[in-house]
Amino acid sequence: MHEPGSQRSMASYGASLPDSVPLVHQRAQTHLALLPSFSTFLRDLTQLERDFSAKASAHIGSFRLAIARSSHERGGDSASLETALGGVLEQCDLQAREVGECAERVQREVSAKLDEVGRRMGDVGKKHHAFYGKLMSQRDKAYETRDRSRSAYFSACDSLESARQKKAGAKEGRDTDKAQRAYDSAYETMLLAKDQYLLDLDSANVAKQRVYEVHLPSLHDDFQLLEASAVRQLEALLARMVTLHHESGERTRACVQKAQDALQLVDVDADQQAFVDAHTRTLSAAYEHPPDLVFEESPVWHDTDEFDTSPTAQTYLQNVKAKAETRLAEVAPAIESKKREVSGLKNLVDAYSRDAALGDTVGVVENLFNVSHETTLLELQQSELRASVELIDETLGDSASTGLRPHDFKPSSFVTPSTCAVCESSVWGKGLSCKKCSMAVHAKCELKVPAGCAARPGAGVVRAKSKKAGAAAGAGGAAGSSTTSLARTTSSASGSSSLPPRRAVPPPGSNASPSASSRTSSSATLQHATVLYPYAASSSYELTLDAADVGSSLEVVEPEDGNGWVKVRVPQDGRVGLVPGSYVEIGAAAAGGGAAAGGSGPGTVTALYDYAPQTADELALEEGEQLSLTATGFAAAEGWAEVSKDGRTGLVPAAYIQAA
């Protein structure tokens, strides 16, 4: 058994399978689904005591089919988990007659626990997947903020262009001065809007980078951890079930030992590595993170992605930086505290995984995920704030923080009107007030107040002046705009072949798809159908009828089901499948034919090929030898015949013999 804490390096979903949350989530869900599935299986199994020998084997076979249908999602037959589960289920089938007295203990100690753990782990998985949506919403929120800033910038450019046109058409005198002031104000507003756009653009890129380089990989690893924890829980509970069977009697000891050996083969790390190897080539080879967002100039105002560094803009950027630094001072200690908590919980999860008796593993994993979610959101916010501070420092240099005395604005309610220190209009109702110097401003004007608080009313406030600036020439090309789809889709192959308890064995070199079903007793009568037209199968459940088959006789296994399909068997090779009812003509019921017709009845048959038995109820064949067909004959099971050889009676593939 591979211990979770061993030194062997474990494959990381986050590092190896970028931007593949749907894929790893589906894998985790598939593993989690095993817990309630096994719980239901064992609960039903304990109710089959009265007729266990006949019914339990069929039930186990059905469950093995259900597991086989989804096995490809867990690595297929090569996965150690699938091998272990197959071994356990096989031993369940062999021990069916001994399970009566321990059925209640299995229900109480294994089945109920599987249901509880499966339900709780399923809830954890759902919450974690919901967090993925929340993380993507945070990313989209940063994009939306950038889009709003861009729209505001474009709107400001439109206003500036309108002011420019009015200034150009103004008459000499008072109208000219008014138009010039309006143009200067519009120009200043445009520059501020551009600065905010650049800030939000950078924040959006930082959020994108953080999400795709840090948080999404971490989310992948969390799903990997959930998957591993579920598998280990399943392994532990199945081991308990096997132990109960071991205690039921000496006659089952050998079977129980085989089941224990099978469980020892579970190697979560190896299965996960195989999963990574199977998808790395397609997911990692040509994968690239979405490109950075770029500055887009207004269609009516040619501009560049350079920050405006006028006095008004410097004041705005200084205030943005001050607010960011204040928030950073609050976020940093919280992140460090969360990281220490995450580290401790990871150690606890590792210890509980090695020894489930230490405590509630599911509860610890849930706590780990909750704290990780909080840390992720704080780190994302910290990254955006740091990026804003660094960009402002790079833009303003020493002016970004030298000699600043920021105001301490707090939300206030103005019962009587006060004058805004920036725009000089009335502040009434909701607004901001500096707790040090009692300056009153609108919330929208906060970032325009110079950082010159002198702890007395009105100190350090500088009214924004209209600045003269020429219209921007057509400098700088239009920035390329790229739209990147950030949602990844994962195609999931649908459909899987059935894996029955009794396999069908086509003759050597045959391309016929094996059909299968449980062994059934011989029918008293057989109904036949005549092929009217050729038919090409479109799925593994259907049967192809060639032109050469037209006019031949088929055995009706199941009559038309009301949907226009008939299940038939080809007597010559035992193939079974569905064909359209309009392509065959159903004849009257007839007694089962002899060996040559594929029915039942005594006779002599000749072996066409060598065959080595796979189970105890099968017989070996040597090419050319003669065997006696029993009364059951070809009706033993679909694709099988019952024969006698050297005093022994057993099954052989129907396609390997023919009437002598």
Automatic annotation (TrEMBL):
InterPro entries: AH/BAR_dom_sf, C1-like_sf, DAG/PE-bd, F_BAR_dom, PKC_DAG/PE, SH3-like_dom_sf, SH3_domain
Keywords linked to the UniProt accession: Coiled coil, Metal-binding, SH3 domain, Zinc
Domain SH3: 524-589, 600-660
Superkingdom of the source species: Eukaryota
GO molecular function: metal ion binding
Biased composition (Low complexity): 480-499, 510-523
Record GO biological process: regulation of actin filament polymerization
Protein name as annotated: Uncharacterized protein
Native source organism of the sequence: Rhodotorula graminis (strain WP1)
